[in-house]
Amino acid sequence: MASWKSCFWTVFVLCLLGNISGLDNGLALTPPMGWLAWERFRCNTDCKNDPDNCISDRLFRTMTDILVNEGYAAVGYEYINVDDCWPERERDARGRLVPDRERFPYGMKSLSDYVHSKGLKFGIYEDYGNFTCAGYPGVVGHLAGDAATFAAWDVDYVKLDGCYALPADMDHGYPAFGRELNLTGRQMVYSCSWPVYQIYAGIQPNFTSIIEHCNLWRNFDDIQDSWASVESIIDYYGNHQDVIVPNAGPGHWNDPDMLIIGNFGLSYEQSKTQFAIWAILAAPLLMSVDLRTIRPEYKAILQNRKIIEVDQDPLGIQGRRIYKHRGIEIWSRPIVPIQGQHYSYAVAFLNRRTDGTPSDVAVTLRELGLNNPAGYRLEDLYEDVDYGVLSPQTKIKVKVNPSGVVILRADAQPSFAYNAIPSRTTYSPLNDIFRLTKK
């Protein structure tokens, strides 16, 4: 998906954000994309009675093949991530982690090599505690050794959970493990559960430190396979956006948790909503679904290139809820291209009503904060309809299905008043479109 345009914008953003530093590993300049086992397959270790669905070498090699053969890798999904329940219950005599000998008979290095042979990247799970959430060995007392083990296995992504740990210790523990990962000399994306455990414990997270040491982090509940769970996450991110949004950017992302599209709990409309809102949130796109049995319409959502492009926008500005009234919400995210002081935007209209009929929402572009006098080229990213160039005075009307979404892309058009290459300005979208919220 890389192009000269994306490279240009990445360089531009890094210059623009030169005084903001994330984890010093050069990774995750856009939100990570891939496949993660946990939500769909949990801690199923019964390979005797359920060999097709247990946490095993076989499962991850199968998903690796599907990611490549069925087009997921081609649109940007690149990580194959093992979650909890992969090791033996005890470390070996030298204190090293050991993959379950029956479920991973060839070892983790072999699995990692297989993933890499397909052009993908390999991720693994551990916990900053005495045990993982499912009771397997944690990293406490083994930080350097486990980091070295992961490097020896050519791991590309490490998720560090926080069960069986004291939240007050995390301000030291998560940075300490991150430093050990860096000291191995191997670049590994570092996913932290640090803030969510502290929030539950009534501790105010130190996001300055979290941004410095982690590539992404969890703020809220684990996602479950239900619309109620997705709604609760959407509400959390909207209600706490003033604290959450400023922390996101290239190399460091808020993580609202996995995509559950294609499982059992979401309707088609609700699935479209999760994908659109996750893109507005600049969220990591980590699918947790059985890719062997996913229905074509859900696969099409997950492979929607235009919405993925919004999620992967190189500016890395997380979107916000700018309107909320009587079950209708509008979410907006600044994206490239920039024309002078005018950002382009992705705008999502969300219908939270359940009264059984689509809702009409009518608004001018100017009322959305889109003020570029040269106008915006407007496109519906699900319906694949190009509405042409519209002026800020144009009133648009969208029809949004119950629990559904309409997501539009509004590309700012060039004007003779502005240079083709954007210059750095003092303009901030946080002081323009993002101050329109109606409770």
From TrEMBL:
Region forming the signal peptide: 1-22
UniProt GO BP: glycolipid catabolic process; glycoside catabolic process; oligosaccharide metabolic process
Keyword vocabulary terms for this entry: Disulfide bond, Glycoprotein, Glycosidase, Hydrolase, Lipid metabolism, Lysosome, Signal
Chief site of localization: other
Molecular function GO terms recorded: alpha-galactosidase activity
Enzyme class (EC, first level): hydrolase
Subcellular location: Lysosome
Domain Alpha galactosidase A C-terminal, first and last residues per copy: 316-404
Cellular component aspect of the GO annotation: lysosome; membrane
EC number: 3.2.1.-
Source organism superkingdom: Eukaryota
Assembly description: Homodimer.
Protein name: Alpha-galactosidase
